């Protein structure tokens, strides 16, 4: 399947890369079909690309690679919705924002994206805790938290 993207042009994706978000993503509820695209480079960054709208994409990373102590409870209702029956089916991503000064790149730990690849289902949840913010520094050792 060929997917049109604003940043990468037309790219071919496989069915395994597709993720269905039943309610879309917050702020983009009308977009439900996304592809997770592996980007070349040294950082473990992927692009979550809308299949329906070429201009809509997000850079995502595994938050545990940057914040090993990141933890929260996934409600049973969401586990049921995403058909997650065992921990191995659970994949977590966080959206990052890269400004002109790369050292100030932030990660959204308040709203993780949960994906069950075996069912090709995803959901972004908003954590109800003041412990995490939408803009933590990705490279936490470089500057104080925003």
How would you summarize this macromolecular structure in one to three sentences?
With 146 residues, the protein is mainly beta. The protein has one helix spanning 76-81; strands at 2-5, 9-12, 18-21, 33-38, 46-50, 57-61, 91-97, 106-107, 113-116, 121-124, 136-137. The strands form two sheets. Strands 3-4-5-6-7-9-10 form a seven-stranded mixed beta barrel. A two-stranded antiparallel sheet has the order 1-2.
Which features characterize this protein?
146 residues; mainly beta; BH3618-like; seven-stranded mixed beta barrel; two-stranded antiparallel ribbon; 1 helix; globular; disordered C terminus
CATH superfamily: BH3618-like
The shape is globular
- What is the overall number of helices? 1
Gyration radius, rounded: 15 Å
Q: What count of structural domains? A: 1
Mean pLDDT: 91
Question: What would CATH call the class?
Answer: Mainly Beta
Element pattern in H and E:
EEEEEEHEEEEE
Strand content is: 25-35%
Q: How would a crystallographer describe the biggest sheet?
A: 7 strands, mixed, barrel
CATH architecture designation: Roll
Distance between the termini: 40 Å
Low-confidence stretches: 141-146
Tell me the CATH topology.
Answer: BH3618-like
In total, the number of strands is: 11
Structure classification: mainly beta
């Amino acid at each position: 399947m060929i997917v049109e993207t604003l940043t990468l042009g037309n790219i071919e994706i496989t069915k395994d890369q597709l993720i269905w978000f039943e309610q879309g993503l917050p702020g983009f509820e009308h977009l439900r079909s996304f592809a997770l695209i592996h980007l070349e480079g040294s950082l473990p960054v992927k692009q979550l690309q809308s299949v329906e709208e070429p201009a809509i994409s997000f850079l995502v990373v595994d938050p545990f690679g940057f914040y090993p102590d990141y933890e929260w409870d996934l409600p049973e209702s969401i586990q049921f919705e995403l058909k997650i029956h065992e921990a191995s089916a659970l994949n977590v991503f966080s959206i990052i924002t890269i400004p002109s000064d790369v050292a100030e790149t932030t990660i959204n730990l308040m709203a993780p994206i949960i994906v069950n690849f075996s069912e090709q289902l995803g959901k972004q949840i908003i954590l109800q805790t003041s412990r995490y913010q939408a803009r933590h520094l990705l490279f936490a050792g470089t500057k104080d938290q925003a």
